[in-house]
What does this fold into?
Amino acid sequence: MAVQRWTFDDGVEQVTLPINPKDGGSPEFTKKVAELGTTAPDGIPILFEGSRPAMKEEFSGVLHTQEHYELLWEWWDKSRAVTITDDLDREIVVYFESFQPRRVRSALYPWKHEFSVRALVLQYTHPGS
Amino acid sequence: MRTVDQYIIDRWIAGQFLGQHRTHGRVTVEPDWRLHLEFGGGLSNIPRPSQLPYRYFQDLDNDQVEVEVPNVTKIDWERSLKSDAGSCTITIANVATSVASVQSGVAGIPGAYTWAHGQPDAAARWGQTPNSWWEVLIPNALLRTYEGYGGFEEDGTPMSIPDAVAGGYLYLTGLWLVDEVNVSSNGTLSLRCRDMAKLLIEQIVFPPFSPPAWYPIRFARYKYTEHVAKAIPVYDSTDPIESGPGAEGPKYITDIAMTADGKGYYLVGTDGGVFTFGRALFYGSRGGAGDVDPAPMISIASDPLGHGYWLTDTDGDVYTFGQVLFYGNAPGPAAGTIRTIAAHPGGRGYWLLGADGTVYEFGAADHFGDSPAFSGFVMDMGVTDTGEGYWLLDSTGAIFTFGDALYYGGANDLPAGPLSPEGVVVAGNIDLEARPIVENADGTVSTVLPFTIEEEDLHVLIPTVVDGPPRILTNDEAIDYYHFTGQHLGKFDTEAHAWIYAADLISAQNLYYTIGPGGLSTCVGMSVMPDGNGYLITDDQGNVAPFGSARLRSPNGSWKAAQDNLNDPIMAMASTPTGNGYLLVGGDGGVFSFGDAPFYGSLPGDYTYISREDGNYTDLTEVVAALLKWAGWCAVPEPEDSIYGVYGNLESTGTFLTEAIPIDTFDRKPIIDGINAMREIVNYGFWIDEEGAAHWESLNFYAFGNFMDTGQHVETLVEIDERYVLSDYAVSFADQAVKSELIVSSHDPTVGLQDVVTTRRRMGLQLLGLDLNRGMVRPYLWVNDHWSKVEDQEALIERLMDLITFSLRRGTVRCVANPRIQINDQVRIYERVTSETYVHWVEGIRSSHDLMSGEWTYDITTGWLGEDWEQGMPA
It folds into this structure.
C-alpha cells in the first residue's frame, strides 16, 4: 500500500513533503493542576486545575535534497498557521516554532540533514471526537 | 452573606476544582458607560422632588452592553470596611491568539488590546490597524468581574457569562472603574481599578454636583425663624380678657417656665397667650382661642426633653404644643381649682395640682398623696429629680412632702440658722434669734459677719457683729471679744464645714431679720434644685427663702428698687438647670433674674420670638442618601412611587443633630468626607458591594448570625475549617486598644464647666477576666456634646467595650475563595495550632485569582467576637 505523504497548507499554497518525517507528529496532551495544602494534618488536598497550556508537537526526520531543505525552512518562516495533514490523515493546525537541521555526511546526498521541527498546535481534532 | 447555589456550597468543601468544576473567572467592559443625568426608557417624565440633580450609573433594567475582555490571566481585588474604596488589578495577555488572527498574519504580536493600537504612526511603521479595542481599555472604563466554580460545557469550553450566572456558577464580584492602564512590551496589560466608591472620592461637593440652590450644602434638622411681634402685649390684672380663655376675667401673666437647657423661658397669660424669650421655641398658644374654653390659663410646664410644653387652665384641661404628648385632663370635680401643672422628669407624664391640695397624675407620673386638710390654698408643687416624689407648697409657705421628697423646711416658720449643720463638733452658744442688727447700704442686714480661727485642731466660727451698740469689730477685736466672752457660733472639724455653715447662717439670718420670724407673706411659687436636695420658695412680694442645698442669689439689675415698686404681685418662679439662679415673674409679665439665670426680656416691651420648623432632614441617613443620589446611586423608583430611591441598602440611624451640620463638613470636599463625618457620629459601616450598591448599615456585631442579600437575618455562618478549606491562619492577641478607663463626656471634663455630663468606667478584669492594664494609666476620653444624657453615654461605653473586646484577638485567614462570604459577615474559624474555634467578624477580604493555574484564594482579616458569642454578646 502506498504511503500517504504529509502535506502543508497555509490557505494560500500547498506542498507535499518529499520524505515523511520518521519520528513524532502527535501533539503532547497536558493539563495544569496545582495543589494547595490545608493546615490540618488530616486535611484533604485542595486541587486547582488551570488553563490548559498550549499543545506542542514535534516531528523529526531526514532530508536529502536542497529543495527539501529549503521547503522546510520556507514553511518555518511563514507567519501564518499551517495545516499539516499527516500519513494518518490527521489534520493539525500548527504554527511553526523552530526548525533544527543537522547536516549528516553522505557521499550520495550532499544536502543530507537530519532535522527536527517544533510547532505550537493551534487546533487539533482528536480522531473519533 | 450572599445567596449562592448549593453547588457552590458543596464544591467549596469538596476541595477538587478540576475539569468542569474548576475555578472560573471572566471580565467584561461596558464601553459606553458614563454617569447619566436622566433616566432613559421614558422614565424621565416622573415628577421629581426638589433634590436635583440626580445621576445614576447602573442601568437597573440591565440594558448595559457588556463586551467580554479576552485573555484574562489574573484577577486580584480587595475590599475592606477600613478603606474608602475597594481596589482591583486585572491582568490580561495583550496578544491576539485566535486561529483567525494567525491566519491573517498577526499571530503572537502583542498590543492587540492596547487602546492606541493602530494609531497612524504605528500603522505606517508596523502595519497595525485599529480594531474594536480602540480606546476601550482606558481610565474610567467600567469593568465587571465574574468569578466562581464550574460553568463549563462538556467539551470544556466555558459557558456564556449570562448562562453561567443563571446557572449559579459565576457571581459578580465587583464593579470597577479603571484608574490606570499599564501596558508592557512583554505582552501584558494590567488594569488597576477602584470600585464605584471612586465616584465618591473623586467628585467633590460643588455645583453642579449638588443643586445650585442648595449650595453651599447645609443640612439642618430644624429651621429657626425669628419673628418680631407687631403688638406690644400689656398685661394688667385690671384689664379684662376680651376673647379666648378666661374671657371677661382679669388678664395677667400667671406662670413662668425655663427651657430644659436653660437658654430661654416661657410666660403664659390667663388669656392663653404664650411668650417666648431667648432660645425658647414658640410652638403655639391658646391666645384668641375664642369661646372654646372659658377657664383662664393658669400654668405652663416645659418638656424636660426640650420638645415643647403643656398648658393647663383652671379646669385642668391640658393643651399640648410641640412634640409633647397628651396624657389626660383633670376629672370634672377639679373644675376651677387647678393651680399648676408639673412635668415628669422623663417627659412622659405630668401632675395637675388642685388648690385644695389634690394631686392628679397622668402618664408616667405616679400618685404619692394629697396634702392634708388645712386653711390655706395649695399654690405650687415641685417634683424630685427621680419623679418618685413631690413637694406641695401652700400659701402660708408650709411644705408637704410625698414619695422620696425630703423636708428641708418651710417658709411659714423661718429658722434663725441652718437646721442641720455638717461637721459641727461643739454647737454654737449664741442666741441666733436675738442678734444685734447692722443695716447695710444695699438694704440687707448683717447680724453675724463671721470668720474662723483655729484652736486645738478645731475651726471656731466667731462673729464680728456685736451688741452694745450694734457694731462691726475688726477681726483682731472679734478674737479678743471671743476670748473675753467665750461666745462663738460653733466649732467645726474642718474649715470648709465652718464656712459652709457661715454662708447658710448669713442667708438664714438675713431672711429672719428682714422678713421676720413669721416667714414670708402669701407664698405663690417654688422651684426645686436639680439635685433634689433643696428648694426655693417665693412670696408675692418677691421675697425668696432657700432651703436645703438652695441658695439665695444676687439679683441682676436693681432688684431692690424694682421690688419696692412692683406693678403686680410676683406670680411664679423658675430655677435654672444648674440650680445657681432663678427667675421671678410678676403679673404684668415683668421678669427678674438672679444668679446665673439669663435675662432675655420681659413684658411689656418689644417682643420677638423664635419659631422652629422642620429642616431638610430628620435622620442622618437622609443626609447620606442625598449625597449618594447626587453622586450616581440614584435608583429608578417603583412605577407607583415618584420618590427616587438610592441604589443600595441604607439603614435608618434614628439620630439627628440639634444644630445644623457645619457647611465645611461638605463644602468643596470629596463626597466621601461628608459620609465619613456622618459615620463617625453613629459608628455605622459604609461600603460599596460587589454589584456597586451602596451600604450604610450598623456593623454586624450586635447579634449572632448574618444578613442575607435579601435583608433577612439568619443564624447561619460559613465555617472556615482547617480540614477542608483553610490553608493558612494567623491570630494576634494585642493590647493596642486596651484602656484603663473609658470616659464619655459632653464637654471637656477638666475645664470646670458646671453643666458637663460625664460617665466613667474603669476597666480592671472586664477583658477576658485578665488585668491587661497592670496598673498603667491609659484612659480613653470621648468628648461630644451630642452625648449629653447619662443613659446615652452609658450605652456608648458599652459599645466601646465591645469594640475593645473585638480588637483583642484579630485573625488573618487564607482559604479557598468563596463568593458566599462578604465583608461585615460573621464566620467561624477552626484551626488547632491557634486553638481557634470562635466566631469572627469579617473586616476585609483580599481575593487572588490566577486564571492560568486555577488557584483562587481569599485572605480574610477578622475581628474576634468574644467567647460564647452564640449567646448574643461577648462574655
